[in-house]
Amino acid sequence: MDTSAQTKERTYIGEVRNLKREGFGVYNYENHFFKYEGEWHNGKKHGQGRLVMKDGSYVEGQFKNGEIDGDGFKYFVTSGAKYSGQFQKGELHGHGVMQYKDGSQFDGQWVFNKRQGHGTLKTSEKAVYEGAFFGNMRHGEGTQTYENGDWYRGGWVLDKREGYGEFRGADGTIYSGHWKSDQYEGDGRIEHCSGFIYEGEWFNGFPTSMATKITILVETNELEINHGDNFSVKVECRNEKGEVIEKDTGRELQLMAGFKYTKPQPGSSLFDMIEDVADKPIETPFGYDVVPFPLTYYSSNIDNPENEMKTGSKPSTPNDPNSKDTDDINDQIEWKPLPQPESKRSFEGCCEWNEVTLAPPPPFYSAFKGDIPNQPKNVKPGSRKAKAAIPPKGPKNEEYVIIVQDVTTPSFMEKSLEPAFLLLKVKRKKYIPKREPKPKWDTSKLIASMSKNTGEEEDG
């Protein structure tokens, strides 16, 4: 007996026919990395078998002429992935399912160990791609549902959206058009979740023609009106070159007015302090800040003092040290604001408000403190004479600022248009307090009274 043969580990243990491995047997490769146990034919692995690697990986299934070929199973110990499907000459080829360690799964076609052809890749419970693959990447036509609820169907090139495709965001945004390298590029239309709509050319994810600012259409740098007059405001959405962007539609714009802000002095009343907190000053290009001032649609009733101030509670007396604050509280409770002009949507780059006017401000509006004169002497507070001495609330002969700003929410492309500002000068007639009419002299009543008195004296 050959002693060297006795010391060596036997490489094959199993059935043999005509000096060739035939039937079932176990073969240990000389490199000690592979071990096969299964069926043999004519000296080659053939039939049902299992090939085990030293690191713990293994493949089992149908073998042909020494290689796994047909249906089988493979476990990758390094990645923890498990493949179940078809093989060809030892490689993943045909239809198969790969389960990855992180829980993701691919179910589809394989070509020489790569995902290629039609398949479904599920990377999480909600993130799923179904469509064409090439070289392990999404390539061709396919549909992708994302973890956050976004959805895309269209062309893919090397794992990126490219060509024509449709996108539906979880927030309601819809884009239909062309893509390149995962960006909007070429002709496309977007309906943003804010209501903004753009249809046209795109480049690198942005519209090639995009507005950056709001412009108020006026013949001069300021608008001058008389108190109580209405006016209109028309704006355009323009780019930095001053060109109107007619493809800008659905942007939400807000019209408002402002009055010059004066920093409160120490000792301000309670309502002044409240207003200073509630109304954050707005910076303007005119060298001063403003606080919001109410606007409304034109109505003949706004000049009626009875509509501007309703006094239902008993007024405080002049000697009451808290009379000023009490009046403010009563005014605050009973004052009813007029309807404000609603925000409007741009259409083909334009937007317009018609017949708007300055509204009476709240009674506690700090800009108009001191407008009400001192009450006449010997006049009962709340009486007709006292009310007649109170001028109707409204704008002075002052300068106001009309502001139009982009309040589209959420902002399109995370950018809002620069606001527009316009000076508004209001002229007001000098207020003359109403006087109580004196009773007319009635001669007939005087004669009758004198006659009556004379008759009584004669009877006496």
TrEMBL record:
Asked whether the UniProt record includes Transmembrane helix among its keywords, one would answer no
SMART domains per record: MORN
What is this protein's record name? MORN repeat-containing protein 1
Q: Which organism is it from?
A: Lottia gigantea
Task: Kindly list the GO CC terms recorded for this protein.
Answer: cytosol
**Gene3D superfamilies found in the cross-reference section:** Histone H3 K4-specific methyltransferase SET7/9 N-terminal domain
Family annotation (PANTHER family): RADIAL SPOKE HEAD 1 HOMOLOG
Q: Which UniProt keywords apply?
A: Repeat
Q: Where is this region: Disordered?
A: 302-343, 435-460
User: What domain of life does the native source organism fall in?
Assistant: Eukaryota
| Matching InterPro entries | MORN (IPR003409)
